[in-house]
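Box S2. Input/output pair 1.
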Amino acid sequence: MQLAEKITGNVARSVNPHGLEQMMSQQIATVRSRGTYAGAKCALILGGSASYGLGSRLTAAFGQGATTISVGYARPPQADFLGAAGWWNQVYFKRAAEKAGLVAQNFNANAFLSSTKQLVIDYVRQELTEPIDLLVYSIAAPKRVNPNNADETWRSVIKPIGHSVTDFSLNLEQERLVEQTVAPASAAEIAATTHVMGGEDWELWVHTLRDAGVLAPNCKTILFSYEGPTATAAIYHDGTLGRAKRAAEASARRLQQLLAPTGGEALISVNRSAVTKASAVIPGFSRYVMALLQAEQASGTHETTVAHQDRLFREMVYGDQRQMDDEGRLRPDALELSTTMQAAVAQILPELTPARFTTAMPGYQAYRQAFRQLSGFAVPGVPAEFDWDELSDNYD
C-alpha cells in the first residue's frame, strides 16, 4: 500500500514508519560516533518519544549505557490509522536498545496521572535492580487535569501577555507565509498554561518517586527551557510559555534544596531552537527558525536535536564543560545566541515576508525537510510504501 503524506495547516496527519526507523538508526549512529561516557545507570525520560526527550534517551542509552524508561502518550496503530510518529519512535528505540543488550521500557500513558507514576514505581521495584538516577522532564502537552480536582482541566495557550502580537508564520500546507495577530492571554489562561507547562508536575514526579524509594540519593533531574532571541520574545519569552518556564525555574530551585543534601541535583537547560511539531504552531517562531537554519547552513554550524542533547549531557550534565548563566541554568543554546549567529539571522529575516518569500529559500527547504522527517517522510532512500502485516510485527 502507498503512504500518502498529509499536512493540514502546520499539523502532520500521516506517518511513514520506515522513515522513522531509518531516522532512529541515524540518531543512534550520531551518539555512537562520539563514544561512551560515564553517566546514568537508570534513566527515566518523561516525554521520551520525540524531540529533546528522545534525544536525551538516545544519549542515555547509547552514550551512557543506561537502562531507560520512557513515559509519554502517542496514538497507537488502529485498523484505519498507522499510528503517531511518537509511538513508532518508541517501538524502534526499544528494538535497537535491546539489540544492543540494553534494557528499555516504554509506557504509552499520560505522564500527568498518578496511576502512571505508580506504573513506573512498580516497574522499578519489580523488574530492575538499580534505582532511577536520572530523571528527564520533557513534557509538552496541551492540557492537564488538576490532580486535586478531576472536574477541572487546565489548557495551555501560546499567547503574548499584556498586548497583541502580529507576526509572519509559515503555513506548511500552503507553503507560504501568512500574517497572524494573536490577542493577549487572560489571567486565567496565564495561570492554566503555568499549571500545564510549568514545574508543578515535575515536582510531583520527584517527590512521588523519592517517597516510594525508587529514586537514587544522587539522582540528577533536568527540565528543558527556552529563552530564544529578541525576534521571538513577545510570543515566547515574554508570553504565556515564558511565564510557565519561569515557574519551572522556581521548581528547580525547590528541587535542588530537596536533592542536594544527598548528592542529587536539579537542573534547568536552556536549549536551542528546534523544529518540532509543537513549535510549528507558535506564531512567528517558524520564520525565525527558517532564518536560523539558513544562517547555520551557510556557516556549517547546524546542530541536530540529538547532537544537541548528546553535547548537553556529555559535556555539561556529566562533564566538566558546563556553560551556565547568572540564574544557574545550563546554556547549550549559547552557539545559537552568539553575536555572530544572531547578526547573520538578522540579515535573513527581512527576506522572510509574504511578499518576498519563495519556497526556494534554503532556510525554508531545511525547515520543511526537518518537519517532514519528524513523521518519517523526506528520508533519503526510504520508500513511501508499507505492508500492514510486516509493520504489525513491530508491535509490542
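Box S3. Input/output pair 2.
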Amino acid sequence: MTRIVTNYFAAASDDVAAMALLDPEGPSALAQGSGEPLFDTVELPSIEPFVMLGTLYELLSGRPYRECTAEDRHGQVVGGSDEGPWVVTLSDGLVSALAQTHRARLAEVAERWARTPELRTLNPQRQPVRLGGAVASLAALAHRAVEVRHSLYCWTCLPE
C-alpha cells in the first residue's frame, strides 16, 4: 500500500492555496526571512481528503456520507499536475463541524473513525490514539481558520 503525504492547511483563497504548489515541501515550507511556515499547517500522513474526511464528516455531523461528500468544495482540485502534488478544498460544512465540536466529542468520533474500514489499514495498533490527536489537530486548525475567515485545503503528494 502506497502511503501518501497529506498536509492540511488554511489559506485566504483558492489562489493563495495554490501557491503551496510552488515549493516541493508544500504548505509547511518555511518563508524566506522569517523561518515561519508559509501556511498554518497540520501534517496528517496518509489521511486523504476524499473518502477518509468524508467519513469523518459523516461521523461528526450524523448526516449520510453521500450528502457529506456531495457538498460544494468537498475535494475540489485547486491545482496540481497529473503526477502531483495536488491541492484540494475541504467543504465549509466539514470545517465548521470540526471548529464547533467540543474536544470530548472529537475524541469519541476519532475512536469510531478508527474502526472504519478505510482507517483500520493504517497502523491498527495505534489507530485510536493517533487519530484522536489527528482529529484534535485538524479541529484546532479549522477553528483558527474560521476565526480569520480562511478555508481549509489539503496538499497531497506521492512519496518518491
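Caption for Box S3: The beta strands are 5-11, 41-43, 77-80, 86-89, 151-157. The mean pLDDT is 91.
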